[in-house]
């Protein structure tokens, strides 16, 4: 069975409490639950990981490479706009990487408009709330080709 890694970035453990206007009231656990339900429908597996540590995020990306995952979905939060360390870790991957954001980062503060990952990822989905996660999984599965 194909395996996809969902990487949740900094402060995402506070979804449901943090800025409901931008992120709604859905918790990270609820998002992961919805991803697992969709994965089941698609006949794939999703493994989720959240950290507030940039080094731990890089280590998990390195492990994804070693584990030969079939695709990665990434909501790096604020790291999207400045973490060249995470960018370099992602560049090691040879599978589809889909960046996602719950809010429309292009309709927010200027500093959020640029993704340092943009040049090395398959694509970006933003502005659809929790559905951004589900769309990202569909995109990653589609880009990964036929089932194992």
Distance between the termini: 6 Å
Largest sheet: 5 strands, parallel
CATH topology: Rossmann fold
Whole-number mean pLDDT: 92
The CATH architecture is 3-Layer(aba) Sandwich
Number of domains: 1
Helix content: 25-40%
Structural class: alpha/beta
Neighbour order of strands in the largest sheet = 2-1-3-4-5
Give the count of helical stretches: 5
Overall morphology: globular
The Rg value, from CA coordinates, equals: 14 Å
CATH class: Alpha Beta
Report the count of strand segments. 5
Ranges where pLDDT stays below 50 over 5 or more residues in a row are none
- CATH homologous superfamily heading: Dehydroquinase, class II
The arrangement of helices and strands along the chain is EHHEHEHEEH
Query: How big a fraction of the residues is strand?
Result: 15-25%
Please render the helix and strand layout as text.
Layout: E1 3-8, H1 20-23, H2 28-42, E2 45-50, H3 54-67, E3 71-75, H4 84-90, E4 97-101, E5 123-126, H5 131-143
Parallel strand pairs: 1-2, 1-3, 3-4, 4-5
Helix pairs in contact: 2-5, 3-4
How would you sum up this structure, described in words?
This protein is 36% helix and 18% strand. It is of the alpha/beta class and 148 residues long. The protein has one domain: Rossmann fold (3-Layer(aba) Sandwich), CATH 3.40.50. The chain has a 5-stranded parallel β-sheet, with helices on both faces. Helix 4 links the parallel strand 3 and strand 4. Helix 3 packs parallel to helix 4. The protein is globular and about 35 Å long. The chain starts with a strand and ends in a 5-residue tail after the last helix.
